[in-house]
Recover the amino acids of this structure.
């Protein structure tokens, strides 16, 4: 046995992280927690694939005996949402999509622009401005509802005036537009924080070189900074997408009836008190509501972890 | 008319003045090196020339036109950065062509210019690569290519070699010198490395705390430093500085270097000094370069004024081509640069000789050369 073998093998046998019992404990705990998180999803999927009598009469953990996709099509197209609507959650799903996509894109882009200005074109007082934007991250949702309602009311009246004047309200007063505005403003603190920290570690010499090359403020942003921001863009998009898609409070406050987002519709579906509670339909609707965020994590999750690390180490 | 003229330039950050009235001019085809210790303001000066930082007062002219308020891209300059600042999302060709793209030069013309610069720098085979796929030396070349392609009236280099390893640095130094000689460009170059300054420059400006210490040709700076700071900063190993006293002996002014351990070394006033300004018994600083401290065998045969002295050897540093020998004179260490096979032994006395043709005197009160 050579000296090198001795050096590498001895700690492997004695090291605390490598003993058999420790490994069993670690993996056992990991498995346990994975189960704790996965069991509800499993129950949801199984329940959504059972007919109603099997749900009410049988075991929650039993596999479906008569596999059926009827609850899914019910939830999507026919379920009763609230009192009068019997067209399922599909319309509300697209309400959410129409709200989430512009809100995520606009808040991410503005956050990137803010981060760019705060780090590469810093002005006197930029630290104070950033501090105040950071403060926005800590303001609880509930406390901004009433001021926000007042402002949205004013915007709505402006929309009516504009419609009288030009024949088009420019979207002001529209519930989906209102939610986009609310989420963009509320998300700006977070997106600015993400991008500012990322761009603080971005070499300023690149910006200077581009200036000498004759690139303008926006050309530098679009050609130099944005193409080199992929990790932080992914982090921001995932974060914003999840938050905005899952938001219930703003959705239920500022969008009523047909214009409500998915989360509000799901609540209305589950809370409908007429007739029997159709658990299988509720479960299918809940899975549909959670699907987009799950999909985003599955597709971009590893970039999310990588991006968070990059920000943590450099920022 | 000079290509670059800087007059009474001042730059303040808040209440701190980092450039305190700089006056420099550079002729067409000149190579100006700004050198000084870190924090002396040399990079700030370069940034003000580039327009990346504003100035508080004064004037910068490039090609006769005042550029004080012009945007960096309108100043007819190009800059090579310390970190190269290559755009990581673009290929080498796109990096070199980016400036032209921003100025709206048509694609065919751009490609032609990129190809010709790539040929000059021998990076044709790298054009489609990304900066992350290049070695340090290759990145350096691409950064130079990006500057060259603009054909500016002034090139600015901000410590371009400090990120390279020692061997590559020497190669690239030769490369830059060759580029300057073949293309006849006008260059302003910032470095803290005084060897780079000496080898590259046609004109050196030594800065300290935002003030110009001396501007001159490399040989002026080296042989006739304006003050003790320049004498000490330029040259490696540094110039030996010894305390001496002016005295009258044999009807002539002489400089006595007092020694506790042995009798004083008495040297005549060096030819470089203005003897009329020396008063008897005044203290002076006697400065002599290590290569002018030697022994009889390897003393310069053309030396006109030589003074010998005995001293014991404290440290021997063989450097391959030379051997540096440290001895103690008048309480100070004196480094002698001797030939590699010099017969010196540690702790043994040896006869050394000062070549006074190369010596200078400073006033200890003002630190200026006499």
């Amino acid at each position: 046995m050579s000296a090198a073998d001795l050096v590498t093998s001895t700690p492997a046998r004695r090291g605390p992280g490598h003993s058999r019992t420790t490994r069993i404990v670690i993996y056992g705990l990991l498995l346990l927690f994975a189960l704790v998180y996965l069991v509800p999803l499993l129950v949801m999927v199984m329940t959504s694939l059972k007919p109603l009598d099997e749900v009410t009469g049988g075991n929650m953990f039993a596999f479906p005996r008569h596999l059926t996709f009827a609850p899914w099509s019910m939830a999507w197209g026919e379920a009763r949402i609230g009192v009068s609507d019997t067209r399922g959650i599909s319309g509300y799903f697209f309400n959410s999509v129409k709200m989430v996509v512009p809100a995520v894109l606009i808040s991410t882009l503005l956050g990137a622009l803010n981060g760019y200005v705060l780090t590469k074109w810093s002005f006197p007082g930029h630290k104070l401005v950033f501090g105040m934007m950071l403060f926005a991250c800590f303001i609880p949702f509930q406390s901004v509802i009433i001021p926000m309602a007042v402002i949205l009311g004013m915007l709505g009246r402006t929309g009516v005036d504009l419609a009288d004047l030009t024949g088009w309200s420019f979207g002001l007063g529209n519930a989906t537009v209102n939610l986009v505005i609310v989420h963009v403003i509320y998300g700006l603190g977070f997106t600015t924080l993400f991008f500012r920290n990322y761009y603080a570690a971005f070499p300023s010499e690149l910006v200077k070189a581009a200036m000498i090359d004759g690139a303008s403020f926006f050309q530098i942003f679009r050609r130099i900074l944005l193409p080199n921001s992929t990790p932080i863009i992914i982090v921001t998009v995932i974060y914003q997408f999840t938050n905005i898609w899952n938001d219930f409070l703003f959705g239920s406050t500022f969008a009523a009836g047909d214009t409500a987002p998915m989360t509000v519709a799901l609540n209305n579906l589950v809370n409908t008190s007429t007739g029997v509670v159709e658990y299988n339909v509720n479960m299918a609707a809940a899975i549909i509501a959670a699907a987009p965020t799950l999909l985003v994590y599955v597709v971009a999750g590893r970039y999310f972890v990588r991006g968070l690390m990059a920000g943590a180490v450099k920022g | 008319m000079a290509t670059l003229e800087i007059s009474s330039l001042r730059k303040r950050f808040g209440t701190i003045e980092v450039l305190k009235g700089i006056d420099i001019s550079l002729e067409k085809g000149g190579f100006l090196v700004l050198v000084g210790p870190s924090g002396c303001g040399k990079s700030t000066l370069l940034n003000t020339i580039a327009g990346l930082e504003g100035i508080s007062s004064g004037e910068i002219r490039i090609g006769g036109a005042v550029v004080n308020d012009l945007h960096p891209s309108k100043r007819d300059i190009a800059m090579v950065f310390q970190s190269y600042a290559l755009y990581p999302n673009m290929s080498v060709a796109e990096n070199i062509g980016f400036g032209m793209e921003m100025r709206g030069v048509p694609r065919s013309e751009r490609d032609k210019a990129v190809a010709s610069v790539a040929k000059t720098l021998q990076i044709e085979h790298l054009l489609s690569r990304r900066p992350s796929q290049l070695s340090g030396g290759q990145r350096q070349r691409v950064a130079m290519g990006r500057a060259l392609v603009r054909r500016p009236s002034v090139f600015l280099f901000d410590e371009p070699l400090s990120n390279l390893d020692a061997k590559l640095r020497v190669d690239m130094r030769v490369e830059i010198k060759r580029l300057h000689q073949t293309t006849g460009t006008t260059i302003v170059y910032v470095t803290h490395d005084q060897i780079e300054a000496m080898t590259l420059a046609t004109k050196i400006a030594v800065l300290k705390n935002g003030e110009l210490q001396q501007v001159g040709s490399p040989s002026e700076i080296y042989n006739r430093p304006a003050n003790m700071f320049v004498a000490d900063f330029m040259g490696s190993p540094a110039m030996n500085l010894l305390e001496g006293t002016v005295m009258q002996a044999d009807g002539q002014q002489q400089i006595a270097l007092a020694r506790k351990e042995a009798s004083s070394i008495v040297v005549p006033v060096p030819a470089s000094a203005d003897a009329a300004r020396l008063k008897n018994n005044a203290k002076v600083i006697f400065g002599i370069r290590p290569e002018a401290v030697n022994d009889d065998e390897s003393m310069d045969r053309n030396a006109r004024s030589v003074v010998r002295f005995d001293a014991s050897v404290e440290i021997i540093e063989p450097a391959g081509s030379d051997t540096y020998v440290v001895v103690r004179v008048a309480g100070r260490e004196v480094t002698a640069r001797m030939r590699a096979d010099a017969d010196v032994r540690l702790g043994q006395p040896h006869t050394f000789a000062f070549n006074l043709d190369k010596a200078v005197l400073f006033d200890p009160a003002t630190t200026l050369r006499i």
Observations:
- Residues 79-314 of chain A form a domain with the MetI-like fold fold (CATH 1.10.3720.10).
- Chain A touches chain B at residues 203, 205-206, 208-215, 219, 223-224, 227-228 (CB under 8 Å).
- The longest helix of chain A spans residues 279-314.
- Residues 1-12, 311-315 of chain A have pLDDT under 50 and may be disordered.
